[in-house]
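Protocol step 4 of 5: obtain the predicted structure for the target chain.
Materials: sequence only (see below). No template structures provided, no constraints applied. The aim of this step is simply to have a reference model before the mutagenesis design in step 5. Sequence pasted as it appears in the construct record:
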Amino acid sequence: MKYLFFVAVFLVGTAIQVKAQNDPAAKKVLNEIGEKVKSAKGISAKFTLKSITSKGKPNAIKTGTLSMKGDKYLLKQGKTVIICDGSNVYNYDGNKTITKSSVEESSATLSPQKLLSGSYDNDFNYKLVSSKGPNYQIEMFPKDDRRSFQKVDLFVNRLKHLVTKAVIFDKSNNKTVILISDMNTAAKFPEGMFTFKRANYPADAELLD
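Step 4 output (structure tokens):
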């Protein structure tokens, strides 16, 4: 579950104006994404997570969905659910535990709120490494060496100005590939979709606050 937040991050985390002194070409691409996402009334997308070992062996494939409106979002992957109402984040592990944390507390996990608040550039150095073919490729390196990953490669569709793929390299050179598909930036959601409802989860699941 540790990379589920990255799905939201790379879909909506660039929805701020980049101000740090990084590669100007990459800055331009990221700002174009941000402008498009910020103008969206709602965002929905499907994603696929592929785990690949440092030796190139496929390890696991998982699929899920993301729904996002403003600072609220809903991530689903199998039985796992992460829902944010704008103030709190509820993380259901698909089994017996629901963990509640404030948006501020969850910021350490690279939640969308952290990036939308303007701290994106405080977390990464980045540069444009390719503009060939249908996608831009941007390398992103965490400034904090304590992060569990060493690098993220971000792929952005040149015509749509939307993220299509992110590749996360951990410190053992294992990779997690996030593929984004069916993104809709004009999605409409029912009232209360981003509100945590205890009755929607097993009665014996423990809520840790």
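Step 4 remarks: Helices lie at 4-12, 24-38, 103-106, 112-123. The radius of gyration is 17 Å.
Proceed to step 5.
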